[in-house]
């Protein structure tokens, strides 16, 4: 009987200690830990045919009837003019067929090769429509854009009707969030 009293008293004291520590312990002072954010704006343009090989491949429109995949290679520039500085490439693979319209395979890759940025960004193009502005999700990146998340807003810069949407210049605004890099995992 004495052992039960000692046991119950020990459990009661331990429970009381935990409750008191939870109620009266000071809250640790945490700085407002916001994730770093970056806003960038670039233009996706048709490659110039006068240049050599690397940017020469352009997209062909999908066949009538909605079949086939849209594979494209474009230049990524600082400005909307053809003479603007090339900062990278935009490549994509989109299947416009209804059964694949929401596929995870519909991805746009932006690859950067500049002094400021070196790496790539992956943009999920699941819900692409024919709107003036498209808001797509940034699902990751490499290099300077490692683990990036955020939004990519596509808008056609030239409102005049062209031969096809494939020939149009598009502005892309990126609003990127990065994870807190202050916590380094020891290797």
List the helices and strands and how they pair.
Layout: H1 2-24, E1 37-45, E2 70-77, E3 86-94, E4 107-113, E5 118-124, E6 133-143, E7 149-156, E8 170-177
Antiparallel strand pairs: 1-2, 1-8, 2-3, 3-4, 4-5, 5-6, 6-7, 7-8
The assigned structural class equals mainly beta
- Record the strand order, biggest sheet: 1-2-3-4-5-6-7-8
Terminal CA distance reads 54 Å
Largest sheet: 8 strands, antiparallel, barrel
Fraction of helical residues: 10-25%
Q: How big is the Rg?
A: 26 Å
Task: Please tell me the overall pLDDT.
Answer: 77
% residues in beta strands: 35-45%
Which shape, going by the Cα principal axes? elongated
Count of β-strands: 8
Order of helices and strands: HEEEEEEEE
Sequence stretches where pLDDT stays below 50 over 5 or more residues? 51-57
Helix count, per DSSP?
Answer: 1
